[in-house]
Design brief:
mainly alpha; 7 helices; elongated
Length: 225
């Protein structure tokens, strides 16, 4: 007696009850949980607002200076190569500008500004806070304070001109203005000091040349007689 043939089970027909959320079901879930979503968003907004309010306001002081790549030549252009009279004698204008940009934010200039204003003893400046006379005085390292000042300075050339815009950020607007003004004064004064030193060097060279010419002239007169 033969057994009946075995037929494979038929695959179940697809139904509309497959797992997953349809747009209608998703909208229904949002409608049911709208209060929770609204509360979450409100908490996020309030937290961000509270954090922003607690942050100190940062002000910017901006100043503009003129950089001339052609320094004065006390001896004239004909003898410019005899004495090093500045960057224009050997460097291109672009290199000279880049050097001046670096000097504005250099440790050499910023340390002098820190000393002039006593910023290393100003706790509000060091903590990036508004001026507060009630804070106890600080005694920070000059170089570290200079690094702090460098980090708040920005130098941006004005395109197509010889002007340079220097910006300083600080939590106190008056202190930002005073610090930037003093810093630019220090930078300009140091450039003037270098110019005076160059002029003195040029004067020494001229006196040396005059003495040499006088000696040569006397020697020539003796030889003639």
């Amino acid at each position: 007696m033969s057994s009946p043939p075995i037929t494979p089970p038929e695959a179940p027909a697809p139904s509309g009850d497959e797992p997953g959320l349809s747009p209608a079901q998703l909208w229904l879930a949002v409608r049911k949980s709208w209060l929770l979503l609204l509360t979450t968003v409100a908490i996020g907004v309030l937290t961000a607002a509270f954090y922003t309010v607690r942050q100190p306001k940062i002000y910017q002081a901006t100043g503009t200076i003129l950089i001339d790549p052609n320094p004065p030549r006390p001896l004239g252009k004909d003898v410019a190569n005899a004495v090093d009279l500045g960057a224009g004698a050997y460097w291109t204008n672009k290199e000279y500008y880049e050097t001046q940009f670096q000097l504005i934010r250099s440790r050499r200039v910023t340390v002098q500004t820190v000393k002039l204003l006593g910023l290393n003893r100003d706790p509000a400046f060091l903590a990036l806070k508004p001026a507060d006379p009630s804070l106890p005085p600080a005694d920070a390292d000059l170089d570290l304070t200079a690094d702090t000042l460098i980090g708040r300075l920005a130098v941006e050339p004005v395109r197509g001109t010889r002007l340079v815009k220097v910006t300083l950020e600080d939590a106190d607007p008056e202190r930002a203005r005073r610090t930037l003004h003093s810093h630019l004064d220090v930078f300009v004064q140091q450039n003037l000091d270098e110019t005076v030193s160059t002029s003195d060097t040029a004067g020494d060279w001229m006196r040396t040349q005059a003495d040499k010419l006088k000696t040569d002239l006397e020697g020539s007169e003796l030889a003639l007689h």
